[in-house]
Each structure stands twice: as structure tokens, then as C-alpha cells.
Amino acid sequence: MLLIRRGDVLSRFRDSGGDLSLLSGGHGAHPDPRWDHLNVLGQVANVLREEAARREAIRLSGGGGGGSSSSAGAGGPFHRGLSGGGGGGGPATHVVIPAEYRAGITLVMRRTNPHLEELMSCPELPLVLMPTQEEEEEAGAGSLQRR
């Protein structure tokens, strides 16, 4: 799982005009069922609703300031926990989305290195080869991948 800060959620949806169809690919449901399981759409809607209520309260009180609220509150950065949490009384600090990570390292070696053949023949390592200048010009930008 990945935690997305409240401010990042607000800026993304402010820039898109608040279009929540971005979360569903415009078809009503995200293709990854984990998004439904975590109710990401509901989490984002709650963050947007909380922000609208906060702005309205500021407007009605005659107060200034129009920036998005901080993700840190009286009880620290997770004073309410995650979006949809509860109990803390403050706005949600983060939205939880599914994520997949693959641990690993990157090894870089010049093509002229005498150990390159040994590295390339190691079956445990998925290899990604950077294109030569000629290959890049011929195929356009990008990497040559061999797995």
C-alpha cells in the first residue's frame, strides 16, 4: 500500500477540475479490484468534501487563507490516521492506494568491461540494456530490454 498525502490529492483534483472519473478510468470501476476493496474513490471524495467544508467554514467566519490544510495536525502527521479513519476529529491526512513494489538493485556496466559477459549470462538477473547512440537514433528514445 502507498500513502498519498492529502495535499497531493487536493492539488491533483484541483488541477483536473475535481473530476473523480480519473479514479475509475471513466467507466465506473477501477480495473484493479484492490482499489474498490480500499474504497479509494470514497477516500478521495471524503478528502475533497472535508476540504470544501473547511473552505466554507473559513469563508463564513470571514477568515482569510485559501491554501490546502496541512497534513500535520495537533496529534502529529497521522492524528486521524488515514482517510476514512476516524476518532481523531481532524481531516484525513492520507489516502491509501494499492501499490506493488519489487525490491532490487541496479547494476551498471560499460559494454567494454571484461566482466560484462559474466554479468549478462547470470540467469538470476533480469537485464536491461541501454541502447547505443546508433540504436537510439534508429529506434527513437527508450531502452532495449532483455528479460
Overall description:
The protein is an alpha+beta fold. Helices cover 33% and strands 10% of the residues. The chain has helices at residues 6-15, 33-37, 40-61, 116-120, 133-139, and strands at 2-5, 94-97, 127-129, 144-146. The strands form 2 sheets. The chain has a two-stranded antiparallel ribbon. It has a two-stranded antiparallel sheet with strand order 3-4. The longest helix is centred in the middle third of the chain and has 22 residues, at 40-61. The chain starts with a strand and ends with a strand. 10% of the residues are buried. Residues 66-81 and 141-147 have low confidence and may be disordered.
Overall geometry: elongated
Give the radius of gyration.
23 Å
Structural class: alpha+beta
Task: Give unreliable regions as ranges.
Answer: 66-81, 141-147
User: How far is it from the N-terminal to the C-terminal residue, by CA?
Assistant: 26 Å
Strand content: 5-15%
Tally of alpha and pi helices? 5
Query: What is the H-and-E element order?
Result: EHHHEHEHE
| Helical coverage, percent range | 25-40%
